[in-house]
Amino acid sequence: MVRIGIVGIGFMGMIHYLAARKVKGARVTALCSRDPRKRAGDWRSLRGNFGPPGEKMDLSRVKTYDRLEALLEDPAIDLVDICNPTHLHPATARAALQAGKHVLVEKPIALEPADAEDLLRTAARAGKLLMVAHVLPFVPEFAYAAQVIQSGRFGTLQGAHFKRVISRPDWSSAIADPALTGGPAIDLHIHDTHFIRLTCGAPQGVFATGVREDGAVQYLTTLYLYGPGGPCVSCSSGALAQKGRPFVHGFEIYLDQATLVFESGTTPLTLLPAKGKARQPRLKGGEEVTTAFTAEIQAAVEAVRSGSESPILNARLARDALVLCRQECQSVAAGQAVSLS
């Protein structure tokens, strides 16, 4: 049994808690929050841009801590699941690794690549797993797309366009502060860069145009430069939509022998093969909003049990996704392509 301690009971901490209840071979044994109401199980103040609102929780079988140090001293915790604010991720993950715990930290791994590199070194010295909770590859439509691309069953990837656009969040005061979240170009768009890096490989460079406000990129469209013979991949992401369209994500993926399309709320996942009729693939996991998070945490638990890294939760992949986001922001500011090392 893998024993999980969750750090941070905001909206994402609640989602992880709900999702973990369905994970096999693991149990949440401890929570850490500075808020006495949340430690008492009153989560009614929590809400986000998806999923259920907060409610009263029965935490009678869960230990609660008001300090990170106290949770890390608990020998009955194997995996620390970090869901506190983004700017606190590096220090929290570093402390957990140094305390001898395996770590699953919500995306992004950090706000600055240097902090991500430091965490990779810390994990190596500690001999513990550092995993980053990028949930998109576990979302059924995206999981299917990744499998189709990586298997080559419909030939080589020729091109793809991804989209992720939200209305400006009003459910969290911190979400609007780039110093705390990195702004939409990091906090939101990193889902896309992680998935693109996972399925399309590492580009040689990026060229991005975007909308900036107060020095932060609010919206961008990026062309990922793979060089001659490489796929033509682009993405549009940011927080420009009006309240009537609070969230949309999707893709069009072009393979030698098939096209794959999906847009949340409008176009169900559809496969258009070169031969035969268009069809809607049968997806694994169902429609419940916590399904992908359960699969994500299950992958982390299996990694702890086996001692082997998860290829999706890999921290180096998460670092690469962060670097891509930062380079795209540089391209927006410079108005020209940026090469990647």
The name of the CATH topology of the largest domain is: Dihydrodipicolinate Reductase, domain 2
Share in helix: 25-40%
User: Treating each run of at least 4 consecutive H or I residues as one helix, how many helices?
Assistant: 11
CATH level 4 superfamily of the largest domain: Dihydrodipicolinate Reductase, domain 2
Which structural class matches the secondary elements?
alpha/beta
Number of strands: 14
Q: What is the count of distinct domains? A: 2
Question: What this model shows, in words?
Answer:
By secondary structure, the protein is of the alpha/beta class. The protein has two domains: 2-135 and 293-310, NAD(P)-binding Rossmann-like Domain (Rossmann fold, 3-Layer(aba) Sandwich), CATH 3.40.50.720; 137-285 and 321-339, Dihydrodipicolinate Reductase, domain 2. It is built from eleven helices and 14 strands. Strand 12 (258-263) and strand 13 form a beta hairpin. Helix 9 crosses helix 11 (315-334). It is globular. The N and C termini lie far apart (41 Å). The mean pLDDT is 94.
Salient structural properties:
globular; Dihydrodipicolinate Reductase, domain 2; eight-stranded mixed beta sheet; Rossmann fold; alpha/beta; 341 residues
Describe how the helices and strands are arranged:
Elements: E1 2-7, H1 11-20, E2 26-32, H2 36-39, E3 63-65, H3 68-72, E4 79-82, H4 89-98, E5 102-106, H5 113-126, E6 130-133, H6 140-151, E7 157-167, H7 178-181, H8 184-187, H9 190-200, E8 205-213, E9 216-225, E10 232-241, E11 247-255, E12 258-263, E13 267-273, H10 291-306, H11 315-334, E14 338-339
Parallel strand pairs: 1-2, 1-4, 2-3, 4-5, 5-6, 7-10
Antiparallel strand pairs: 7-11, 8-9, 8-14, 9-10, 11-12, 12-13
Helix pairs in contact: 1-10, 4-5, 5-11, 6-9, 9-11
